[in-house]
């Protein structure tokens, strides 16, 4: 079976790419389950209820997050009732929401999705290593045959260390947060697919998704500046992982990096075969 994971969706440009092209892309890749990090979906910081259901309607099965998950206050009010929107599992136990979820693939395979967050240069929360092990046990108990981990972290070393720590225990571990796709995809000796950072889905003519003029002004002046998402050169970054449900081990991993023009070509081809795949999901 094949999993498609989409890198951090940033603002409306990122949501629009997903809304217009995800169903055709998933079909072209023969993806059984689609996962995405959505913590930057609302204007580059946070995710709202409307954003959540817009992304789910577009074909995403599970949404992961990270340190920006609470940037929109309303998230606290609905995340507990929407198990498909995850927050890092290593927040304290009484934090609203859940850190893992078991999704059912299009072919009936149960896929466990675990979301943890690193601690280096981020909030001082619980240990992501032992928390990941606990959540893996939880989704296995729920019948998960394949397990995917989103490690939302700042440093390459912490992501890589967790990758080695979980090698052989999960089908894949992929890093998010830095918004720059790395080129170190591989399958570790124990059968776990690994990529340090999947990259970003949204505008690439700024600085990690934000308008470049404001970011440069912040660096030059040292003064507070309001950041807004950039708007041009929209691209979708992601990764596909092929796994064997019988063993839970990965057999292939491949990066996805597509411009809007390339996505449109995929959507046009899919639409010619099936008009439903070329139909964009309405905005929330």
List keywords for this structure.
single chain, 284 residues, Purple Acid Phosphatase, chain A, domain 2, 29% helix, 25% strand
Summarize the structure in words:
The chain has a single domain (2-275), classed as Purple Acid Phosphatase, chain A, domain 2. The protein contains seven helices and 13 strands. It has helices spanning 11-29, 49-57, 75-78, 128-141, 156-166, 212-221, 260-273; strands spanning 2-6, 8-9, 33-37, 62-64, 100-104, 110-117, 146-152, 172-176, 186-187, 193-195, 200-203, 234-244, 249-259. Strands 1, 2, 3, 4, 11, 12 and 13 form a seven-stranded mixed beta sheet that branches. It is globular, with a radius of gyration of 18 Å. It starts with a strand and ends in an 11-residue tail after the last helix.
Structural class: alpha/beta
- What share of the residues does DSSP label as strand, in percent? 25-35%
The portion of residues assigned to helices is: 25-40%
Q: Give the SSE string.
A: EEHEHEHEEHEHEEEEHEEH
CATH architecture annotation: 4-Layer Sandwich
Please give a quick description of this structure.
It contains seven helices and 13 strands. It is an alpha/beta fold. It has a single domain, classed as Purple Acid Phosphatase, chain A, domain 2, CATH 3.60.21.10.
List the helices and strands and how they pair.
Elements: E1 2-6, E2 8-9, H1 11-29, E3 33-37, H2 49-57, E4 62-64, H3 75-78, E5 100-104, E6 110-117, H4 128-141, E7 146-152, H5 156-166, E8 172-176, E9 186-187, E10 193-195, E11 200-203, H6 212-221, E12 234-244, E13 249-259, H7 260-273
Parallel strand pairs: 1-3, 2-11, 3-4, 6-7, 7-8, 8-10
Antiparallel strand pairs: 1-12, 5-6, 9-10, 11-12, 12-13
């Amino acid at each position: 079976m094949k999993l498609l994971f989409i890198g951090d969706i940033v603002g409306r440009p990122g949501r629009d790419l997903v809304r217009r092209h995800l169903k055709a892309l998933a079909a072209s890749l023969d993806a059984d389950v689609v996962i995405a990090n959505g913590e930057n979906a609302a204007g580059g910081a946070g995710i709202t209820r409307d954003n959540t259901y817009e992304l789910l309607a577009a074909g995403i099965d599970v949404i992961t997050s990270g340190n920006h998950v609470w940037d929109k206050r309303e998230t606290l009010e609905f995340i507990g009732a929407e198990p498909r929107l995850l927050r890092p599992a290593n927040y304290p136990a009484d934090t609203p929401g859940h850190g893992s979820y078991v999704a059912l693939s299009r072919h009936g395979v149960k896929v466990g999705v675990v979301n943890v967050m690193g601690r280096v240069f981020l909030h001082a929360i619980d240990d992501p290593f032992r928390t990941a092990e606990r959540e893996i046990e939880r989704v296995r108990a729920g019948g998960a045959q394949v397990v995917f981990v989103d490690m939302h972290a700042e440093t390459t070393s912490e992501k890589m260390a967790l990758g080695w720590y979980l090698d052989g225990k999960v089908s894949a571990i992929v890093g998010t947060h830095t918004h720059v796709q790395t080129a170190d995809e591989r399958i570790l000796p124990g059968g776990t697919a690994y990529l340090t950072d999947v990259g970003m889905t949204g505008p690439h003519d700024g600085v990690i998704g934000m308008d470049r003029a404001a970011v440069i002004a912040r660096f030059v002046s040292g003064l507070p500046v309001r950041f807004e998402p950039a708007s041009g050169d929209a691209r979708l970054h992601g990764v596909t992982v092929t796994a064997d449900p019988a063993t839970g081990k990965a057999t292939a991993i491949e990066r996805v990096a597509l411009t809007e023009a390339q996505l449109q070509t995929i959507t046009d081809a899919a639409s010619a075969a099936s008009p439903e795949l070329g139909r964009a999901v309405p905005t929330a």
